[in-house]
Structures are given as C-alpha cells and as structure tokens.
Amino acid sequence: MAPRILVPMVVGLLAAPAGAQGRVIITEIMYNPASVEDKGQTEWVEIANVGDAAVEITDWKLDDEDSLDWGTFSCVLPPGGVVVLINRDGTNEQDFRKAWDIAPKEGEPEPPPYLVIPVTWGSLANRPDEQNEILQVRNDRGEVVCEVNFQSGGLWPSVTGRGGPSIALTSAKVVELNDGRGWMKSEAGKHGARASRAAGAFSAEDIGSPGTVAGLDPPTEAPRLKDGAGATPKREGGDSNRVDF
Q1: What CA–CA distance (Å, rounded) separates 174 from 167?
Q2: Which domain holds residue 138?
Q3: Could you tell me how far CA 78 lies from the centroid of its own chain?
Q4: How many structural domains does the chain have?
Q5: Bridge-partner residues for 13, per DSSP?
Q6: Which of 166, 176, 183, 192 has the highest count of CB atoms within 10 angstroms of its CB?
C-alpha cells in the first residue's frame, strides 16, 4: 500500500452551484461471498457520490494494506451516482448483471442506473481485522479520498463461515466510515438487498445491494464512463440506459 495522504473530498468537481461539493465514499463491500472466490472472482466494492456536486474521476483506484496492485478506473459520478468495481480477471459486467440485476415487480419503481466497472483486482481478506484490511480509494495523485478499516465482529457486522452477505452503510449520511456501528450485514428484502442468481463465477446465493445505497437520493442523471466506451449504466431490471456524449 502506498503512503497514506488524506485529503479533503473537494476534488474533480464539475460545474456546480456555489458551495456544492462532491463526496465519494465506499458504500458496500462484498469481501466474503459464498460464490467461488479462490482468486477473488466474485468480490466487489461499491462506491457512491453522496455529495451535492458531480465528481469527475480520472485514474482513481482501490488500495489496501498489502502489496498487490489494483487497477485504475475513470468515470463521472453525478450526485447520487453509484459504481460497482468488480474483478476483471474473475468475471465481467454481463455476468455480474445477470447475477444481480433483478427486474422490479409490477407496480414497483425502476431502481436508478449504476455503473459496473471491471478493474485489476487486489484481494480482500475473508477475516478482516484492524491490521489486515484497510480499504482505500485513492485519486490519480495517490491521495486517499476515502478509507474504511473494516473488520468482522466486535462493533462490525460479523461475516463468517460460508459467507455470502456483503456489508453496507446503514445510510449515505454516515460520516465516520471506520465506525462499525455505521455498517450492516446485507439482508435480502431490506434496503435493496437481494440474493444473487447463478451466472458465470457467481455459483452460490450471495446477498447484497449493488447499485442501491440506503438513504441516497437517486441521481438526476446517469453516471457514465469518461470516454464513452461501453458507457451503459443500467437499471437493476436489466434495461440499458445508454448515455450519448
């Protein structure tokens, strides 16, 4: 892991009203899935812009305390925008959406669109503690934009044994991300959480809420990749919502 350089989250802002700020944070972590994960195939991390201004992300990446290198990603996140980062060597966007995107029942509103971006993966410990899992989001200068020193047990949700559920923020309004009391174990039917379906590497029933963050207002526009290549934010029903730019 590179040296820790903590910076305020006033970075990469696009045109916005005076006083508006973006804030990109980690909102959900699938670190111990029930599906195959000997190489982290079905692990994933969700980040979101919980601020009130769009954030332009260029060559940011995840990082943690070990020496493995994570790949970069670039996108534009409007207020309320969500992106799920997945292991590019273990799965792909198509299989991820087959596993996780579920059409709403009749009369239910369409969930907001979200991005799925494959990146070169590091690794996430199945038994995280205070020393062995310090997950960060770093900008292109190596500065820490967000950090979560998550654990299993104690004040943190316990994910042990067979695994399967992710941990997610109880609310987008949580400020102290290193306080386990602000996190919950995902439970199907609550806060957008559901069971995954079999697709590719997703071989078992995992529980999570990718694309949905408790207490987060829907984005006013779809999040997008910066260069437009493959920029197809989709709703959880599986319908694409292509953004032309």
Answers
A1: 14
A2: 24-218
A3: 15
A4: 1
A5: 55
A6: 166
Do 101 and 232 meet the contact criterion of CB atoms below 8 Å apart? no
Please tell me what DSSP assigns to residue 27.
E
First-to-last CA distance in the chain?
36
Domain-located, residue 224 = no
Q: Are 97 and 113 in contact (CB under 8 A)?
A: no
Token pair for residue 183? 């996190």
Q: What share of residues in the chain are helix, strand, coil (percent, to 5)? A: 5, 30, 65
Nearest to 31 by CA among 19, 45, 20, 18: 45
Tokens of 46: 């969700």
Query: Which phi and psi (to 5°) does residue 190 adopt?
Result: -125, 135
Kindly report the CA angle at 186 between 180 and 188, in degrees rounded to 5? 160
Task: Assess contact for 192 and 212: CB atoms under 8 A.
Answer: yes
In a domain, 225, yes or no: no
Beta bridge partners of 25: 48
Q: Is residue 123 part of a domain?
A: yes
State the pLDDT at residue 163: 75
Sorting pLDDT into bands at 50, 70 and 90, what band is 230? very low
Written as six digits, the tokens of 185 are 């174990």
Q: Does 183 fall in a domain?
A: yes
Task: Count Cβ atoms below 10 Å from residue 180 Cβ, excluding itself.
Answer: 20
Give the pLDDT confidence of 158-199 residue by residue, as tens digits. 998 777 899 999 999 999 999 999 999 999 999 999 999 999
Indicate the pTM of the whole model: 0.87
What is d(CA 25, CA 47) in angstroms, rounded to the nearest whole number? 6
